[in-house]
Structures are given as C-alpha cells and as structure tokens.
Amino acid sequence: MLWAVSRAPLAKIQAYRRRMGWGFPWASSFGSDFNGDFDVFLTGEQERAGVFEYNFRESPVWSPPEDVRGPFDAWAATTGTDWATYARERPGMSAFALEDGAVYHTYSAYSRGLDGLWGMYQWLDRAPRGRNEARGPGDPLNWFRRHDEYDAP
Q1: To 5 degrees, how large is the angle CA 87–CA 88–CA 90?
Q2: HSE (CB half, 13 Å, CA atoms) of 151?
C-alpha cells in the first residue's frame, strides 16, 4: 500500500489533497521526528553546522547568494512556504514490511533515485529540451504547474 508523509500540518495536507483530486492516504509527520529519522529534513543545528546527512553521505548546506535569491524565493512560494523552510526539506522514499507484528524498514531511495516514481520526469527526460528547468538568466525556475494553474502566466 502506498502512503505519503509530509511535515505540513494535516489540515494543510488535506486541503491540498482535495485541490489536486488525489485519493491516496497522506499522513502528517508535523511535530514528530519521522522525517529527521530518515534524513529527509535538516534541523536548524545541521543548517548552522553547514553539513547534513542525506542519501547515505554527508552533504553541504547550500543557499543561493542574496543577489540571485529572487527566483528561489518564487519557487518556494509555489509550495506555500519560504525559501528557508523549503531548503530544509529533501525528497525521500522508504518501504516497510509488517511481519508477525514487527515493522521492518526494507528500502530507501533519495534524490535522483526517486525519478522513476515521478512519472512525468520519465517523459520529460526524453523530450528535446528535457525538463526545461534552466531557460536562461532571470528564469524563475517555475516551469512546473499544477493542473489548476495551466491558464496562469
């Protein structure tokens, strides 16, 4: 069975789920250590230290320089948050098995290891311009739109 877990409060998740017309189970890990336990969230301490564990290795914390921050702020805003909060999140997927009352963590994937799960990327990666993420200087990076945003500029 597929379940999604996000750190957002449950009411925010439910509203977005309704907006998108999705029916899969989606839980909130808000206020818990769940995302941190699987290294898909940076704590303030990790951010200040400048490094964090992700994809089974130590990674540097990165933030765009202030003079080019605008497009990144705009991208974060499309998800309903600010850049500082957005930059602390990392994608991850884990699989679990329940056997004889015990839960086993059987698999994890991170970063580009998730591309196979995001169906649209499989098509875009084969198109002449690929994901078309970088379209030149000043590009706001907002190449991805949700179904109810198609008419928006």
Answers
A1: 90
A2: 1
pTM summary value: 0.74
Half-sphere exposure of 142 (CA within 13 A, CB side): 18
| Contacts for 124 with CB less than 8 Å, ≥ 6 apart | 130, 131, 132
Would you state the structure tokens that stand for residue 132, as one six-digit string?
């078309």
Give the model confidence (pLDDT) of 49-89 as tens digits. 999 999 889 989 888 888 988 888 888 888 888 888 888 89
66, 57 in Cβ contact below 8 A? no
How far, in Å, CA of 55 to CA of 24, rounded? 26
What is the signed CA dihedral for 96, 98, 103, 105, rounded to 10 degrees?
-20
Residue with tokens 């998730």: 114
All residues at 6 or more sequence positions from 118 whose CB lies less than 8 Å from its CB, including other chains: none
